[in-house]
Amino acid sequence: MAQFIQYHITPSFPEAHLFYITLTIPAVSEQVTLRLPNWIPGSYMIRDFAKNIVQLRASDGKVSKGSKDSWIISGIKDDHLVVEYEVYAWDLSVRAAHVDQTHAYFNGTSVFLEVIGREQEAVLVDIEAPVGEAYKNWRVATSMRSASEVAIDGGAELYGFGLYFAENYDELIDHPVEIADFSLGQFEACGVSHDIVLAGKHYADMPRLEKDLQKLCEYHIRFFGEPAPMERYVFMTYVLGNGFGGLEHRASTSLHCGRNDLPRVGEDSVSQGYRTYLGLCSHEYFHTWNVKRIKPARFLPYDLTQETPTELLWVFEGFTSYFDDLALARTKLIDVKSYLELLAQTITRVWQGAGRHKQTVTESSFDAWSKFYKQDENAPNAIVSYYTKGSLVALALDLKIRKATEHQKCLDDVMRILWNQYGKVGKGVEDDTVQDIVNQLTGEDFTAFFQQALYTTQDLPLEQLLAEFGLQLKFRASTGANDKGGKLDSKSEMASLMVNWVADPLGAKLNVVHDFGCGQKAGLSAGDVVIAVDGIKVAGNDLDNMVGQFTTGSELEIQAFRRDELMSFTVSLEPALATVAYFEPVSEQELSSHAKAWLHL
Ligand code: ZN
After folding, report:
1. How far is the CA of 317 from the centre of ligand 1 (A)?
2. Which of 104, 124, 489, 534 has the most Cβ atoms closer than 10 angstroms to its Cβ?
3. What average pLDDT score do residues 311-332 get?
């Protein structure tokens, strides 16, 4: 048997939140450098995972630190080296590692040191169960292949502990692992076996999840064309009281959701929470093609030592965000009314931030590392999201392509070209690739559209484009911090401070003060705790409703603490800006034939 680099990993002491890892490196020379990634693909922020390595020891030679993320072992005399280390795993997110008495979860980027210069070698991973009665029902969920699939002895059985295999380091860190007494659902989609793994306390109706996700996965596979690019796929969900998040991988996804988001037995409607969960599954599954295989040239290969900016996240996150909800409508998991509500909510999220006037979607993408991923109280006033704005660029482009080609072509075709000519053959996407594909597909020059949509902060002409498909997009003023849009609301002309706030023992703590609002004009600031409105205590009341009862045009006295200083503000009341979107109600039958074609009705 060939000598593989081998990792042995076990959550041997879950109570201390530690993974123990032994790395055995055959055929070593006199010096070896080991390194842990500083970021995880799909989540564009430096996270310095190496900070969680607690102790590192080598069987031979002298260990010294090379940089914050690397270790140099020099003076090695043996022909192989064994390195042991512990990783502190107490980050409950889809991006890192987490272990306690209830489960163990890790991404390879948090636990597997890379052997510099040998990243192309195949590796084995031996996953061992913790010892103890409490863990006897734990199983392993991962899309990593068992070593037995490549004819190596000791290969793990499906969901079992034992030996797993990865072709190289890049693959090794792209198969997260969930170890727990989890619930398991299974289905086939276009011949590919899919697992649904639910860890954490939950009451989900698993047969319903199987049925709904099967529909969704078959849709996406056929969208890009059979066969699917993966042999098997795992939806890994950790269920929490409240939670939301997901990260895409080549043959799996790690998700977090709230317990009440998942449907219970006997429930057959689609709750808002379940709609959100299905949208998240749809989003991460679409990434199996769009970003895991169709990639920015800049990511070929990933440089995990430092920030790797690209201006293309409007394609990779934006287009994915467009097709995720659209797929729910096209598969009829949600109805048209529900889809248009979601679409209007996305438009609202973009329009509600004055940041859309200040940052372009390509700048947002490029600066994801320092701005989108490091949002502060000023973010809504300073930045635009490449997810939401990117998805609206996709919508506008889709509608424009349909119009330009007399409804013969659409954005689906652009995605299929990206898949066949780039993703499938491992060719990277450049900044102008999508523009070139669209010009070729339509035979028209889309330069002006792309110039405006990508490189200026002008609003996209959505009202006009949607009207041509018979859909009337309208805007109204916000009724307060909880107004997500998507619906008409008669209260929307009321006075509004244009602030976001959270309840505080003393009153309402402002976390965002929006540009152009009367709250900002009066001097209210993020961090202020508003305690009285017209002399009435705010604690226990809804600040938006309290202010909304006064007439616009009148003056209102507001008291707030800034740090420990009590301050008074005179606010000249105005309604909020008209930034909340909704559609004029339209029944399915009344939709135009072009809208029906777009929604696959
Ligand atoms: Zn995404």
Report:
1. 5
2. 104
3. 98
